[in-house]
Specification:
8 helices; elongated; Arc Repressor Mutant, subunit A
């Protein structure tokens, strides 16, 4: 079992989904493709961790919907309580920021503007997602409770991390622009920024 297998099982624990829906949701956590997911779904089905049902559609081929089985739920539980590996990060923006002092002012300004634009976009997307989650919950509070809880707490986390990143970006900009200041004298202090 690889991490992608556990990722698919964990998504199916929230609700039955098609392969397409699984790909869309999984890509919120890490990038994958249909061609990587479908062979794993077949293997998970063969091993009895998921069950496939066909949903009739008019004028289209039947839609394959995957459900987590009891055996799959047990495997997922064991994975859930096992120790989590360290996060693997490949972040081009972080690498660029690492060498920011070697760049000219125009390049730094362009990079910080790009970062702020991306962070602001993330903030707006998170706010929109939170509103959609709240609407789905209002429409069907009983069945939505388990499938929306994880999405809600993670979207709230993403929103607040993005807001923090925006404040951090402002701090970097001010620190970079203040040529007189020894950069070690001005820590990023979240408590001071929030007051």
């Amino acid at each position: 079992m690889n991490k992608l297998s556990y990722g698919l099982l964990s998504l199916l624990s929230t609700e039955p989904m098609s392969g397409y829906d699984l790909t869309q949701k999984l890509n919120k956590f890490w990038r994958s493709t249909h061609s990587a997911i479908y062979p794993i779904l077949s293997k998970l089905e063969e091993e009895g961790y998921i069950q496939l049902t066909l949903k009739k559609q008019s004028g289209k081929p039947d839609k394959k919907i995957y459900n987590l089985t009891v055996k799959g739920n047990e495997l997922l539980h064991d994975w859930f309580i096992s120790e989590t590996n360290e996060e693997v990060t490949r972040d081009e923006m972080t690498l660029k920021l690492y060498c920011i002092k070697f760049m000219d002012e125009e390049a730094v300004e362009k990079l910080l503007n790009e970062l702020e634009t991306k962070v602001n976009k993330r903030i707006e997307q998170s706010k929109e997602s939170i509103e959609k989650i709240k609407l789905k919950f209002k429409e069907n509070p009983e069945t939505a409770k388990s499938s929306l809880f994880g999405a809600y707490i993670l979207t709230q986390r993403n929103l607040n991390v993005a807001k923090l990143n925006l404040q951090w970006c402002e701090w970097v900009r001010n620190l970079y622009e203040n040529k007189e200041l020894n950069f070690l004298e001005e820590d990023f202090n979240l408590d001071r920024m929030m007051n």
